[in-house]
Design brief:
The protein is an all-alpha fold. About 75% of the residues lie in helices and about 0% in strands. The mean pLDDT is about 85. It comes from Sphingomonas yabuuchiae.
């Protein structure tokens, strides 16, 4: 029998989740700057004062959204299990799952946060931290594909190329409404095949 925490979320947890979901939708629909705390409070049915107790600023809401997205997207347990078991197919599956997904709202939010990161030091710090975590995980995945437990420069170069392809795919899908999955998949396959 496992010891899994099955504690039901508190009312405060549910309220914060509602705020994050509403804020995400409004940031995607209207942009970060055009979405005020009052609009988030009104749409989520939470008093402005309570919202400020939960999230002292819009940046705090963004930080919470990004943290939740990273946990969901990173799927750290799957990667760690595949690396521990030296499961090449599992590592490849983990690598291709992120850039191949089509999440229009997630893509739009990503670009909105990236744009804000160019103007706002706090958002930039959050953005760079997320990028560093993703880069480390992808580097570890390439090291594992090449049979190494140690991340070296070659693995980092492949990770950087992988991230460039992924970011380019997000931009092309979102900004140009282009279907880029076949080309993106081909480039990712080339990187993975080169990691032997």
């Amino acid at each position: 029998m496992t010891n899994i925490d099955c504690t039901a979320p508190t009312r405060a947890d549910l309220r914060r989740n509602t705020i994050k979901e509403v804020a995400r939708r409004l940031f995607v629909e209207n942009g970060f700057h055009a979405t005020g705390i009052a609009a988030i409070a009104k749409e989520s049915g939470v008093a402005v004062q309570q919202l400020y107790r939960d999230f002292p600023s819009k940046e705090d809401i963004i930080a919470a959204i990004v943290a939740a997205d990273c946990e969901r997207i990173a799927d750290q347990n799957t990667l760690n299990t595949a690396l521990t078991n030296r499961d090449r197919a599992g590592i490849i599956s983990w690598l291709v799952s992120t850039p191949c997904r089509k999440d229009e709202c997630g893509d739009r939010l990503f670009l909105e946060i990236a744009a804000e990161a160019a103007r706002n030091e706090r958002i930039r710090a959050i953005f760079l931290d997320v990028r560093a975590q993703a880069f480390e995980n992808i580097s570890r995945a390439f090291a594992g594909l090449m049979g190494s437990d140690v991340v070296e420069d070659e693995h980092r170069t492949l990770a950087q190329a992988f991230m460039i392809i992924s970011l380019g795919s997000v931009c092309a899908r979102t900004l140009h409404q282009e279907e880029v999955k076949p080309a993106s998949d081909k480039l990712i396959d080339c990187l993975i095949e080169g990691a032997k």
